[in-house]
């Protein structure tokens, strides 16, 4: 039978302890700096990817807004036999000033986007800029604003309580295929006192732009106004590089009150559009200018040989 053998005490009566170092080992300063540097590099690599993913999500939401507007336009056309007029007034051309009747196409869509109460509060006996329409004019409707838009949703953004103000829209109907005043004989689908139906779009609804994006500028007159605030042309490619002082991202300011301008967006060289058949897509700023002009005309009769609707940019 084996017996446990006790450790013999060392001289002096004390047991020997193992020769183990008890000192705790920590990180050196160099190691900490290396770890911090690696973390910083990973964050720097991750942030652009996260921002890109967020912008892609906002672009999808913007396309969804256009889809909802397209459904509303189809329902309006089914009930009235034609698209809403781009703007209503006694005569043209339309001046981009807060004077006149200027009842815009987005006002007519209110009952078709679950805004029937808002529509009932519009006083059609007076113009858009009349005090009787001030409350409706200042209502911010999220469907009319692109999620990527970073500007003020009301213009002017810091107006006094008794000062005129209007909520902006980032979506504009195509009234013409070249830069020209808004008038009764434009080539787009919604213009002054227009009454365009599907039968009038002889170039094909799938090849005709109905609505696209635009940016609000300091002179923007709001979503109710049938001016350049809600109407644009395809005379220049989308998101063209405008010069506005030191701010290359800002919208082009009109030279005079008859200039309208083209489509613009916050989507880095791409603008989203709604076509007459209901499909939505982005069009790059590098699109062929001639092709883009053709997409803005409802009945030019020209052969469309290539471009976004032909599976190309």
Description:
The structure is a single chain. With 313 residues, the protein is an alpha+beta fold. Helices cover 23% and strands 11% of the residues. The strands form three sheets. The protein has a five-stranded mixed beta sheet with strand order 7-5-6-8-9, with helices on one face. Strand 8 and strand 9 form a beta hairpin.
For the structure shown, list the relevant keywords.
313 residues, alpha+beta, 5-stranded mixed sheet, two-stranded antiparallel ribbon, 9 strands, 23% helix, disordered N terminus
Mean pLDDT: 87
Compute the CA-based radius of gyration: 31 Å
What composes the largest sheet? 5 strands, mixed
Counted by DSSP, the helix tally is: 5
Which blocks of ≥5 consecutive residues have pLDDT under 50?
1-8, 242-248
Structural class: alpha+beta
N-end to C-end Cα span: 93 Å
SSE pattern: HEEHHHEEEEEEEH
Strand content: 5-15%
Q: What proportion of the residues is helical, as a percent range?
A: 10-25%
Shape: globular
């Amino acid at each position: 039978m084996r017996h446990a053998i006790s450790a013999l005490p060392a001289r002096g009566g004390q047991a020997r302890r193992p020769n183990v170092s008890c000192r705790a080992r920590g990180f050196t300063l160099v190691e900490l700096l290396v770890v911090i540097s690696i973390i910083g590099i990973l964050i720097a690599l991750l942030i652009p990817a996260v921002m890109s993913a967020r912008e892609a999500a906002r672009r999808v939401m913007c396309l969804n807004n256009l889809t909802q507007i397209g459904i509303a336009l189809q329902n309006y056309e089914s009930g009235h036999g034609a698209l809403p007029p781009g703007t209503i007034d006694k005569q043209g051309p339309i001046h981009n000033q807060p004077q006149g009747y200027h009842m815009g196409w987005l006002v007519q869509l209110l009952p078709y986007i679950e805004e029937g109460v808002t529509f009932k509060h519009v006083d059609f006996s007076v113009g858009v800029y009349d005090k009787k329409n001030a409350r409706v004019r200042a209502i911010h409707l999220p469907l009319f604003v692109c999620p990527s838009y970073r500007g003020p949703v009301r213009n002017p953004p810091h107006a006094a309580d008794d000062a005129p103000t209007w909520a902006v829209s980032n979506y504009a109907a195509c009234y013409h295929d070249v830069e020209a005043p808004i008038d009764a004989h434009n080539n787009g689908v919604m213009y002054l006192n227009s009454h365009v139906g599907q039968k009038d779009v002889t170039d094909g609804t799938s090849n005709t732009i109905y609505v696209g994006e635009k940016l609000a500028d300091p002179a923007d007159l709001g979503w109710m106004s049938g001016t350049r605030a809600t109407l644009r042309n395809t005379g220049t490619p989308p998101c063209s590089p405008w010069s506005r002082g030191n701010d290359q991202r800002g919208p082009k300011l009109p030279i005079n009150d008859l200039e309208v301008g083209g489509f613009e967006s916050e989507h880095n060289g791409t603008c989203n559009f709604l076509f007459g058949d209901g499909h939505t897509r982005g069009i790059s700023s590098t699109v062929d200018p001639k092709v883009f002009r053709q997409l803005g005309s409802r009945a030019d009769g020209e052969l469309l040989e290539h471009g976004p609707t032909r599976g190309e940019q």
